[in-house]
Amino acid sequence: MARIHLQAIAAGAAFIVAAGTAMAQGAPIVIGSSIPLTGTVASFGQHSRWGAEMAIAEANAKGGVLGRKIEIDFQDNRCNPAEAVKSVTQMLAEKKYVAIHDGLCSSAALAIMPLVERAGIPFVVANASATSIAEKSGVGGNKWTFKVNPTDASLLDALIRHLHKDGKAGGIAFLGEDSDFGRAGSDGLTQALSKLNLKLASTDYFQKGAPDFTAVFTRIKAAKPQQLALYAVSADFQNAMRQWAQLGGGVPLTGRPLVDQVPAEIMASGLLDGTTAVQPYDPSVDTPGNKAFVAAFTARFNTAPILISFESYESTQILLDAIRRAGKTDPAAIRDALATTKFASILGSTVEFDQNNLAHNNAIILTIRGGKVVVLGMSKT
């Protein structure tokens, strides 16, 4: 009887261990995301959320990753460094996340980087463009941060090369928001122009939320630059475009004006014809992968994707691919797998990370012609 009893205990213990293992294997893999859900750029945060959710929904429809469902928790950082630190500190304290995603704003991403480095957890930057993020990553010191979005420096190198071929790289005035984003734009243009022994014609900054651009626009126009490089986002960009239109434009725009965010009536007027911009993405890119993405995204969310939604979608796919290749959810294994990424982008190139953990994808050179955005070509960053 004792032998039977011991066998029963052993069998019961084996069952408990097996059940516990099965439950562990079936537990969701959870990713944390710090993005602006409220505040002046909440619309961009919404697109980041949509892009990540779509990538995860597609993965879960195919059985998840490592046989487990993927989940993502979103925390609001309001595009503010202090709020980003607060949201990510809270997520890291819970110790259930295998990686942190996006950050979106450059200042927020830079604030998050020291936190993930101390915690030893991968941080996949989807949208922040500041060059300093890559400079501080990989061999720059922070081995846990991986930047999928191209830096402003790499994008502007591609733009200036294109403008130089047409003799349009000289005489560029700069106007940007007084932030990591705006200053990365002026620094990137300065560096790109210096390779051709050229300089910016002038450099001006504005405070986010500035109500009136009339004075600075009037002064820039009076100097008669060849082009105006504009670095503004969300409500500031919309406000700047309307005031630029009221002043009759008169100087072609360049840099990274958000051509997909121009008010429809201004775009249709032809006022911005001659604009030449560089972006990491445009929904009109003519590749099979992008056509399928635009169709699926539009059907799911009843709106077309923008740069933010694309970067969030593809960076989430890159993270899921790394988890799959790591074969486990150990943060260090995921980090090592991210470093060896070779991902087929819907833009037609293969995405790999360099020694600064910076991904290199195609840059899209755009113009506005006849009131419509036209893709002039793509150049690897």
CATH topology of the largest domain: Rossmann fold
CATH architecture of the largest domain: 3-Layer(aba) Sandwich
Write the CATH homologous superfamily of the largest domain: Response regulator
Percent in helix: 40-55%
CATH class of the largest domain: Alpha Beta
**N-to-C order of helices and strands:** HEHEHEHEHEHEHEHEHEHEHHHEEEE
Q: Which parts are unreliable, with pLDDT below 50 for 5 consecutive residues or more?
A: 1-24
Instruction: Give the oligomeric state.
Output: single chain
Radius of gyration: 23 Å
**Looking across the biggest beta sheet, what order are the strands in?**
2-1-3-4-5
Major sheet attributes? 5 strands, parallel
Content-based structural category: alpha/beta
The count of helical stretches stands at 13
Gross morphology: globular
